[in-house]
Amino acid sequence: QVQLVASGGGSVEAGGSLTLSCTAPGYTTRTTCMGWFRQAVGSGREKLALIYTDDTHSWTADSVKGRFTISQDHVKDTVYLRMDNLRPEDTKMYYCAASTNYCTTWTSWGQGTQVTVSS
Questions:
Q1: Are strands 10-13 and 113-118 parallel, antiparallel or unpaired?
Q2: Where are the alpha helices (DSSP H) in 1-119?
């Protein structure tokens, strides 16, 4: 398993932007897919975006398409989630995760980073 450390959350006004980072040393050789999820208290976890470690495929949920962008930097061992035009309903805890079977299952999770959007 890889260790994932998520960061970059915070408080922002509606319409603002944040970029979340998920640093995972060694992930490029130990995983095949990385993803971002979010969850509100009392709700299920929502998958937002995923990217294959080899950069051959990425996917973004319809609910955030056009506002959220996933990317990665192999040199920095980091996967990013750029979030633009944030809305109050984006206020949730955000998690990154790693998969060794092309996003079929998720074997490692980061600790979560809180995003709060005020109106």
A1: parallel
A2: 27-30
